[in-house]
Amino acid sequence: MKELEGRVAIITGAGRGIGAATARVLAENGAKVVVTDILPEREEVASKIKVEGFDALAIKVDVTNKEEIDQAVEKTMEAFGRIDILVNNAGIFPPSTLEEMKKEDWDKVIDVNLNGTFNWTKAVLPVMEEQKYGRIVNIASIAGAVIGWGGNLVHYAASKAGMLGFTRSAALSLAPHRITINVITPGIIDTGAPQAVNTKEALEAAISMVPMKRMGKPEEIAHTVAFLASESASYITGACIVVDGGYSLV
Ligand code: NAP
Fold it and tell me: How many angstroms does the Cα of residue 155 sit away from the middle of ligand 1?
């Protein structure tokens, strides 16, 4: 039997990148997956997973929209009858120096990355508490823990640092309900996002600092999510798993 057989997983921001890879890997491990994103590509991600013979459902959800989140929880319950795994992955990273940053820029990043995590976690909690089972995995960043990243992502760094604190504190209140919550801090992952927000030179310079001398693959984050969502990780909660090829060690 596959590790996640019978489990139902919701992944946010799963139309591409780390989220799409996570949906595929969780499905390959036996979970029924709900592919949510504002990006229309969510439909294609879910279709491909279904073609492989697994269960998948695509739903348009903006993580800042409580109504859409509540409707997605309802649709998931109608389709699959339970929610075991939530992966808070959706994130934005528009670069801006502190000097240039407007209050709206700050608010938008905090709203998607941090408030989105809160919104989705709150929405699935009643179901997970009722089931007395849940696995929540948050995708933060080493930028929220140990790396300054060129100094042009203060809002992003603050939002991701917030996810780390959120995870630790929530772990204490969720443990009695048999719900674990953990956070992953990826380094530079080859999703197109690092290329979009850095010059070629800046990205090459950053990769040269990584002891493994390469970017990570989205699947390398996805497999870590699958582990944290599995029975093998049943005694891990409030933990931060660094997946960065050693970048934060230098
Ligand atoms: P990505 O390719 O840009 O994927 C993120 C997805 O989230 C996109 O489809 C995006 O849609 C969606 N999204 C944005 N705002 C949303 C909202 N309000 N509601 C729902 N979905 C929304 O990024 P990625 O590289 O896979 O990163 C995934 C996560 O890993 C992010 O949280 C990121 O901070 C984190 N991370 C990434 C790296 C890296 O190097 N790639 C490193 C550390 C941490 P749009 O395209 O329309 O915005």
Answer: 15
Provide the H-helix boundaries in the chain.
17-28, 42-51, 66-80, 103-109, 116-131, 154-174, 193-197, 200-209, 218-228
Residues designated catalytic: 156
Under a CB-based contact definition with an 8 Å cutoff, are residues 16 and 41 in contact?
yes
Q: pTM for the full model?
A: 0.98
pLDDT digits over 113-166, tens only? Answer: 999 999 999 999 999 999 999 999 999 999 999 888 778 899 999 999 999 999
Angle of helix 66-80 versus helix 116-131 axis, rounded to 10 = 30
| DSSP per-residue codes, 183-223 | EEEE-SB-SSHHHHHS-HHHHHHHHHHSTT-SPBPHHHHHH
Burial class (CB in 10 A: 0-12, 13-18, 19+), 73: buried
Polymer length in residues for the chain:
250
Please work out whether the CB of residue 93 comes within 6 Å of at least one atom of ligand 1. Answer: yes
